[in-house]
Amino acid sequence: MSQETPLLPERDTREAALFFVVCALCFLAALAALSARATYDAAAGWTAEVQGQITVRLVDADRRAADEARDLIAAVPGVTGARVMAHEEIEALLEPSFGAGGLPAGLPMPLILAVEADPALENLAPDLQRRLTEAGIDSRVDAHETWAGDVRRALGVVRLVALSTVVLLGATAVAVIAFATHAALLARRDIVDVLHLSGATDRFISRLFERRFWVLGLKAGSVGALFALAAVALAMSMASAGSGRSGLLPRLSLDPTDLLILIATPILAALAARIAARITVIRSLKGAF
Amino acid sequence: MSIGNPDMILDFAVRLDGVSLRYDSSEEILSGIDLNLKPGSFTCLTGPSGAGKTSLLKLLYLALPPTRGEVSLFGRRTHDLSRNALSNMRRRIGVVFQEFRLLNHLTAYENAALPLRVAGQKEMDYRPDVEELLRWVGLGGRLDARPEQLSGGEQQRVAIARALVNKPDLLIADEPTGNVDPEMGERLMRLFIELNRRLGTTVMIATHDLTLIRKVEAPVLRLQHGLLVRDVEFGGNAA
Ligand SMILES: Nc1ncnc2c1ncn2[C@@H]1O[C@H](COP(=O)(O)OP(=O)(O)O)[C@@H](O)[C@H]1O
Ligand SMILES: [Mg+2]
User: Fold this and answer.
1) At what angle do helices B152-164 and B108-118 cross, to 10 degrees?
2) Which of A155, A186, B98, B236 could disulfide-pair with B217, CB 3.0 to 4.6 Å?
3) Distance CA A31, CA A39 (A)
4) Which residues does chain A have within 8 Å of residue B74's beta carbon, measured at their own beta carbons?
């Protein structure tokens, strides 16, 4: 009998339910944090792909006018390439809208110039538009960057929602632990009273509960994080089993940051549990003599 | 007799000044009680069941603050002490609760050692002393038994060992012989007396066991209708 029995009884059936709740909260929080993280990757990937890409749509132009516009654009500093898109290319682009049967015969086919430019150059698109207009060429210049910005803004909203979810789940966990500590304190009133009357300080008593909930937070957080890892792994395998073209979906992967999130989850849960327990116990004891 | 002289309370292990107690909105259980216990004194407290003996003891072992009046221990007023100072004061008080209040998940040995553990002492340092104390109260063979495996009398003796284990300056026992046979009752009483004589521990014992009181040469206080009176019938050597 070298090991001292803990002053708070080890096994407590009430804690099974608490364990489950904290576990679920950690699972959801880890998933939300991973989603927030994935939005950074998605935004970065998208931006890299579209940066420096500009399309120029020519209105009421024939092939000769298109070549003329192309030469004018190619001469602008910062432009690394400009070409008239082939008919088939445009049809392929429009296929999702009009189907594989090709465009209706009577539809006028727009002429489109694909322009490649130095990604570092800002405000190139307005500059091109001005030059084309000055040259009397009726055109519409679209920097892909512009709507990449829309995508980025949308991803920013997703990220904000995900981060808010993490914060909300964290606050919920703290509230749940505080509630559970209060219940445990009431359930163990007999023990707490005897310790108190034996001269135990508030810190001594609170440490018993802190240790208990610290361990619970650590265990439940680890299980929750493991489930989150499993969920991401499952989603990844399902995504790669599909077409492989995930479109706007955030790229799912596990990099060091994700692992950090998964490792931090149980530690933060344990810390939150400990602080909640401490505040609850100290506050409750202060009310007594 | 001590008006305006704060040093006077140093002469007392326990002092109550005009102490009253009521629970919630009930009648006053204790009304205007004055009590002085000198260091090293041995006092019995008696009175019918429900008279308020346990309530009075609760004030002494700092489980409750009085509704009115002042409780002083070891020469210090308690009402303005910090929580930590109160905890320190409680460590100088050994209590045998009427209902024992042993921790069910701990062994007899661990229960008896509890105040030392609370005071932050090391198990290896106190183990021999605690075992010897338990042997002294006749529980040498039951160190690892849990309360539920012990008889009422054995539990009571564990409770007594716990109260004595840190050699308190003040020992408060609430019906400490209520669950043991007369022979063990007398033995425990001798134990309290020995403790009082040898270590100078101030002892206050509440009991309604009159035969036991007769055997002890000690002042007897009686609680009646919320008032404390010196019992002339059993008052041996009135102070
Ligand atoms: N916690 C409490 N709340 C309300 N009333 C109480 C409480 N404890 C004791 N009493 C009442 O106070 C009176 C004195 O009780 P107690 O001090 O236990 O007397 P004794 O120990 O002499 O039997 C009784 O009427 C009892 O019902
Ligand atoms: Mg009583």
Assistant:
1) 20
2) B236
3) 13
4) none
Which fold would CATH assign to domain A52-143?
Alpha-Beta Plaits (3.30.70)
Q: Ligand 1: does its nearest atom lie under 6 Å from the Cβ of B50?
A: yes
Task: Supply the residue whose CA is at minimum distance from atom 5 of ligand 1.
Answer: B23
Q: Give B193-211 pLDDT, tens digit per residue.
A: 988 998 899 999 999 888 8
CA–CA gap between residue B185 and residue B183 (Å, rounded): 5
Q: Domain spans of chain A?
A: 13-47+149-286, 52-143
Decide: B48 in ligand 1 pocket, CB within 6 A: no
pLDDT at A246 over 80: no
Whose tokens are 């009398």? That residue is: B153
Angle at B172 between CA B55 and CA A197, to 5 degrees: 75
- Contact flag A4-B117 (C-beta cutoff 8 Å): yes
Burial of A107 (0-12, 13-18, 19+ CB in 10 A): exposed
With contacts defined as CB-CB under 8 Å, which chain B residues touch A190?
101, 103
> Chain A contacts of B101, Cβ < 8 Å?
190, 193-194
- DSSP three-state, residue A102: coil
Does A289 lie at the interface with B, CB-CB under 8 angstroms? yes
User: pTM of this prediction?
Assistant: 0.80
CA distances B71 to B35, B64, B174, Å, are 9, 10, 19
Q: Is the model more confident about A282 or about A242? A: A282
Asked if the C-beta of B123 comes within 8 angstroms of chain A's C-beta atoms, the answer is yes
Per-residue pLDDT tens over the stretch B155-173: 999 999 999 999 999 999 9
Ligand 1 atom closest to Cα of B58?
A: 17
